[in-house]
């Protein structure tokens, strides 16, 4: 029995999902976490909303804050057009190691780059170190206490431009009240609220989309 929850999830996927099939990987993570052990992936219900926003945005450069086991990175990457890239930031090295294997097993490794470290250090280095000019879509799913600071950092680093889309998980539970207040009142975003439920649970949660209107 693998020691860590995240390693048990990866083991289950490797033993039951179809290698090279991102949908199968996503489905098996959802199956394991709804039947065996809860884990903090965005999940299948909020995942369908994420899919819809990714499809309508059709992004070339995606930034994800909070990789965890690679569930949403796999979910997003499966929808990206050839030549597009997903950069995902994870500060926990053990989770990053699991995510790397999960993404490899799903066969989306050519589109996904895992950046190990904290967002406040990595975001300011995206232009110089990772050759990013702008990000078209940002999935914010790391720590709700960092949502606002990291959104402001993306603005200050001029990484988001007019039309860039932010999508934040957990704005109801655990909750991101200051983030909602910021994007809804600063005047620079068009916001949409998507009520849903906490992953693998009937507790209420929601996603907030914030489309940048420019500085
Ligand atoms: O820390 C998190 N980062 C990113 N996403 C999360 C999440 O989707 C959660 F449900 C939760 C969560 C954790 C414990 C609970 F009891 C409920 C939700 C946490 C996170
Ligand atoms: Mg989340």
Protein architecture, described:
This protein starts with a helix and ends with a strand. It is 44% helix and 20% strand. The protein is an alpha/beta fold. The protein has helices at residues 5-16, 22-35, 43-57, 71-77, 93-106, 119-122, 126-130, 147-156, 171-175, 177-185, and strands spanning 61-65, 85-90, 112-116, 137-140, 165-168, 189-197, 204-212. The protein has a 7-stranded mixed sheet, sandwiched between helices. The protein is built from 10 helices and 7 strands. The mean pLDDT is 98. Magnesium ion binds next to loops. Residues 40, 42, 141, 169-170 line the site of magnesium ion. It comes from Eleutherodactylus coqui. It is an enzyme of class 2 (transferase). Pfam families: Methyltransf_3.
Which key terms come to mind for this protein?
single chain; 215 residues; 7-stranded mixed beta sheet; binds the ligand O=c1[nH]cnc2c(O)c(F)c(-c3ccc(F)cc3)cc12
**Unreliably modeled segments:** none
Distance between the termini: 51 Å
Q: Which ions and ligands are bound to the chains?
A: ligand 7JU, magnesium ion
Overall outline: globular
- Helix vs. strand class: alpha/beta
Cα Rg: 16 Å
Main sheet: strands, sense, barrel: 7 strands, mixed
Number of E-type strands: 7
Mean pLDDT: 98
Q: How much β-strand is present in the residues?
A: 15-25%
- Note the run of SSEs as H and E: HHHEHEHEHHEHEHHEE
Strand order of the largest sheet: 3-2-1-4-5-7-6
């Amino acid at each position: 029995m693998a020691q860590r929850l995240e390693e048990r999830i990866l083991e289950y996927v490797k033993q039951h999902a179809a290698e090279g099939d991102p949908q199968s990987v996503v489905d098996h993570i959802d199956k394991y976490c709804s039947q065996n052990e809860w884990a903090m992936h965005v999940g299948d219900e909020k995942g369908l909303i994420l899919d819809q926003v990714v499809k309508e945005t059709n992004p070339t450069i995606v930034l994800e804050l909070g990789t965890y086991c690679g569930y949403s990175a796999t979910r997003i990457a499966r929808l990206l057009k050839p030549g597009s890239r997903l950069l995902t930031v994870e500060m926990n090295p053990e989770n990053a190691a699991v995510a790397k294997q999960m993404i490899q097993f799903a066969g989306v490794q050519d589109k996904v780059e895992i950046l190990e470290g904290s967002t406040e250090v990595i975001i300011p280095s995206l232009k110089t170190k990772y050759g990013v000019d702008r990000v078209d879509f940002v999935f914010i799913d790391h720590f709700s206490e960092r949502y606002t600071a990291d959104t402001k950092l993306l603005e200050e680093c001029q990484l988001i431009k007019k039309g860039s889309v932010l999508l934040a998980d957990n704005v109801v539970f655990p909750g991101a009240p200051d983030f909602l207040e910021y994007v809804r009142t600063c005047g620079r975003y068009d916001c949409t609220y998507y009520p849903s439920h906490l992953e693998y649970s009937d507790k209420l949660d929601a996603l907030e989309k914030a489309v940048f209107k420019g500085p």
